[in-house]
Amino acid sequence: MEQQKIVLRYVDGKILKGYSLDFNPTRPFFHLQMQSQAPGNQPLKIELKDLKAVFFVKTYEGNKHHKKRKGFLPTDRLQGRKVEVTFVDDEVIQGATMGYDPQRLGFFLLPADSDSNNVRIFVVSSAVKSFRFL
Predict the structure, then answer these.
(1) Does some domain include residue 66?
(2) Residue 49 lies in a domain
(3) What's the pLDDT at 119?
(4) Measured distance between the N- and C-terminal CA atoms of the chain, rounded to whole angstroms
(5) pTM for the whole thing?
(6) The dihedral formed by the CA atoms of 85, 11, 8 and 15, expressed in degrees to the nearest 10
(7) How far apart, in Å, are the Cα atoms of 21 and each of 26, 43, 73, 83, 124?
(8) How far apart are CA 58 and CA 48, in angstroms?
(9) Low-confidence ranges of the chain (pLDDT < 50)
(10) Beta strands across the sheet bearing 118-124
(11) Which domain holds residue 49?
C-alpha cells in the first residue's frame, strides 16, 4: 500500500503531519508515521474521535502564493453533491461528497478549490457543527 501524506487537525487545534499505511474510514483508529520521526520508530496510534479532520495533501508546505477559494465556481465539475461543512471551531469548508451519514465516523470531502493543497479531506462527524447541501 502506498504511503498517504496526511495532515491531522485535532479538535483542540493540535496539528500533526506524517504518513499512514492503514487509514480506513470505517475503523475508529489508524497509525501515523510522523513526518519528522526517525525510521524504525513505532508509529503513533491515532483515534478518529479526537480529530477534526484528516487532510490528504500534495505537500506539507502547501503553496503560500495560492489564493484560497472558499466556494464553487460555475465551471467547477466535481463528483458528488456540493456541500458546506461548519466545524465545531466555526471553520467552514465547501466541497463535494459522495455520501454523508452523521451516524458514520466521518465522510470524504473533495475541496471546492481543486488547486488547493488538499487532495481530499476526511471529515470526522463528531467535529461537525452543521452540514448543508448547496
Answers:
(1) no
(2) yes
(3) 94
(4) 35
(5) 0.91
(6) 130
(7) 15, 10, 34, 28, 19
(8) 22
(9) none
(10) 44-47, 29-34, 15-20, 4-10, 51-57, 118-124, 106-111, 92-97, 81-87, 128-133
(11) 4-60+71-133
